[in-house]
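> example.struct
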């Protein structure tokens, strides 16, 4: 975990990294970053906080505040055990059995989650995905397993270049849980490969990227040109935040990045590597001036620095040269007990802001610009945010979230020293910023600014001081009361069409987080869900309507007109397989390949297919074409969808209805550019909605850039394709 070798690499690589840092990254993880993995927690109140390779049943000894490591971790609000400490042997010890040390049973009893390490080569060994899921099922703990750990700090060459193929293999075994891989901090030249594409390709191949560095105790910061002053610790925490930024810049768009943060332990003596000699009493090591252990205040600042720069998860490495669960209080020393209490404070605070952190990011920037100590600017900006420092020696970073119409500004300073930071938030003139979190409230209550208010001027600006009284790298959080000063703007399609007797759906899409919707003048048979903005129902009369759409937040109401045309049915009532109110379990599958998606169906009576519909997720963009096939693959009809909404059911009517026979199999499909909607294990048996029935294993697909008869199937999936039958 903390075992570093630090080769200094080619100057060209270093310059390449410096160029990456020259421009603030626009790569941001959107809300629902884990939505594509349905077995990962989806609650907006969940923020991942993991502990690495720790046995939950490990006894903590006399004097410790808790009996076992699991009890201490749960009390500290850690929610994930990442990896399994099984004494160096495989876990489980046999296929579908052998929960040695009672690891998974303990995780379940604690109400926590596990991301166990799994076999990278096969799905048959005792530590394979199939074996672990089988064991978890037998223990009633399958819901506690939320991902797979692929390993830690792979070195250059085959260990890294094999990661993409390994990830592809594991995904074929289980696509419902994300894959994790922790890496060296190669953007700061720790384990960077030549070519650097080895590092980048491995990062992008996994679901969630991660790194560890521990800049405060690291003796390996020599390449960062940090000034060394005799008797004073090096000023190195800024490396953590810029490392997060660098990983995000090299990740896939939207790929979550997690960060290991120092606990206050020495990471198995990491601070004494590279010939560093440490004085435990003074907490200073020479000749590099790294610290022996990070202080509680530094640990808190480093955690928030990681989050402010975009980390979507925090990881703790408890191992210390004194005890393996040192950060959980093992051994009962005053330092160990203090560290556990500090982690409890940090994790509790992070989780208290989880919903805000999981809300949309509308501004994010850092003044740090490279891997050298002096590579920073005096200002930065992105989205609604601009940030300027009043001290040319102290840069800063900030993050802005839009939560339920209110803005939350997370900010810190990024060098030792004090600075007045000026923030400008576009569209927030006249609002009031309230300090809702200040680390001083914990570490120096006499200088806490919690509750202090600032009125934003006509340019949406206010200023505040960071790092005063020796509280370097001070994090603060502000709530901008009144939140977003802009009323919603409706962006969904201005026209839509439907057919009498045919289920209809349209979703009002608007900016600036509306909290309520309305639609006035709807045709008979249609209603609106005022909480979600979904207009649905079955039209009962033909005609054209100008529907007044409204989307409202605390700042006002946005309006638009929807021209809605309902056509007369070509004869008889219309039936479909699925009710109009259903929503797919997976709205946007993480598959960017062009594909034909369909359903095999029959009707209990003769009739005609007048059209096809499919459920569209927000990422299923581009042109879509419907096809109706015989069971043998003969194309019977085709039509192109038009006037699509951003999400929901999309319907197209064939120019000429297709007559079908009773009890005969047909295939309805549409062609997608990827990111379609799906439910696994839906068609494990036939699905009936009389007079229609979808056959068992009736969800079919076929990859290709143009229309083709879909015949493949996977896990009895439903791709949410439907027919209009009369």
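> example.seq
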């Amino acid at each position: 975990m903390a075992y570093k070798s630090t080769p200094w690499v080619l100057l060209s690589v270093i310059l390449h990294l410096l160029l990456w840092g020259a421009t603030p990254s626009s790569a941001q993880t959107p809300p629902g970053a884990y939505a594509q993995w349905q077995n990962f927690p989806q609650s907006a109140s969940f923020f991942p906080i993991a502990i690495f390779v720790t046995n939950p049943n490990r006894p903590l000894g006399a004097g410790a505040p808790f009996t076992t490591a699991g009890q201490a971790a749960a009390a500290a609000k850690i929610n994930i055990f990442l990896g399994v400490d099984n004494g160096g042997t495989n876990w489980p010890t046999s296929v579908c059995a052998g929960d040695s040390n009672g690891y998974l049973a303990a995780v379940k009893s604690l109400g926590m989650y596990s991301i166990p390490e799994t076999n990278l080569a096969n799905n048959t060994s005792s530590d394979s995905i199939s074996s672990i899921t089988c064991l978890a099922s037998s223990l009633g703990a399958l819901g506690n397993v939320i991902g797979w750990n692929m390993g830690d700090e792979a070195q250059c060459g085959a260990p890294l270049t094999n990661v993409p193929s390994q990830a592809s293999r594991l995904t074929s075994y289980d696509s419902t849980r994300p894959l994790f891989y922790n890496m060296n901090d190669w953007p700061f030249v720790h384990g960077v490969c030549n070519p650097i594409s080895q590092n980048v390709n491995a990062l992008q191949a996994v679901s969630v990227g991660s790194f560890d560095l521990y800049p405060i105790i690291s003796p390996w910061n020599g390449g960062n040109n940090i000034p060394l002053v005799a008797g004073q610790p090096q000023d190195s925490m800024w490396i953590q935040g810029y490392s997060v930024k660098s990983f995000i810049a090299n990740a896939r768009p939207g790929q979550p990045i997690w960060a290991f943060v120092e606990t206050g332990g020495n990471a198995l003596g990491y601070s004494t590597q590279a010939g560093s000699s440490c004085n435990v009493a003074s907490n200073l090591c020479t000749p590099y001036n790294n610290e022996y252990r990070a202080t509680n205040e530094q640990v808190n600042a480093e955690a928030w620095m990681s989050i402010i720069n975009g980390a979507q998860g925090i990881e703790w490495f408890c191992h210390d040269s004194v005890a393996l669960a040192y950060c959980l209080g093992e051994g009962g020393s005053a330092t160990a007990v203090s560290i556990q209490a500090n982690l409890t404070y940090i994790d509790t605070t992070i989780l208290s802001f989880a919903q805000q952190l999981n809300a949309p990011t509308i501004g994010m920037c850092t003044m740090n610009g490279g891997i050298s100590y002096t590579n920073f600017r005096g200002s930065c900006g992105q989205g609604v945010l601009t940030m300027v420092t009043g001290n040319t020696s102290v840069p800063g970073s900030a993050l802005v979230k839009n939560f339920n119409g209110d803005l939350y500004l997370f900010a810190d300073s990024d060098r030792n020293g004090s600075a007045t930071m000026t923030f400008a938030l576009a569209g927030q003139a006249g609002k009031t910023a309230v300090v809702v979190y200040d680390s001083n409230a914990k570490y120096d209550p006499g200088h806490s600014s919690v509750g202090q208010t600032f009125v934003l001027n006509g340019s949406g600006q206010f200023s505040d001081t960071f790092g005063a009284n020796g509280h370097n790298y001070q994090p603060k959080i502000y709530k901008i009361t009144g939140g977003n000063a802009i009323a919603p703007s409706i962006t969904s399609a201005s026209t839509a069409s439907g057919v009498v007797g045919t289920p209809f759906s349209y979703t009002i899409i608007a900016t600036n987080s509306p909290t309520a919707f309305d639609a006035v003048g709807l045709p008979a048979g249609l209603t609106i869900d005022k909480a979600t903005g979904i207009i649905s129902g079955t039209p009962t009369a033909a005609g054209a309507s100008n529907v007044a759409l409204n989307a409202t937040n605390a700042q006002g109401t946005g309006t638009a007109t929807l021209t809605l045309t309902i056509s007369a049915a070509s004869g008889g009532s219309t039936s479909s397989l699925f009710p109009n109110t259903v929503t797919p379990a997976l709205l946007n599958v993480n598959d960017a390949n062009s594909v034909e998606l369909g359903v095999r169906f029959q009707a209990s009576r003769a009739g005609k297919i007048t059209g096809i519909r499919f459920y569209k997720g927000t990422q299923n963009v581009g042109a879509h074409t419907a096809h109706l096939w015989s069971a043998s693959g003969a194309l019977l009809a085709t039509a192109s969808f038009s006037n699509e909404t951003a999400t929901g059911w999309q319907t197209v009517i064939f120019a000429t209805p297709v007559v079908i026979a009773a009890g005969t199999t047909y295939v309805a499909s549409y062609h997608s550019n990827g990111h379609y909607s799906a439910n696994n294990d839906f068609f494990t048996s036939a699905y009936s909605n009389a007079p229609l029935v979808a056959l068992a294993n009736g969800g079919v697909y076929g990859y290709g850039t143009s229309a083709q008869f879909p015949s493949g199937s996977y896990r009895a999936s439903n791709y949410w394709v439907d027919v209009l039958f009369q």
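> remarks
The chain has a mean pLDDT of 90.
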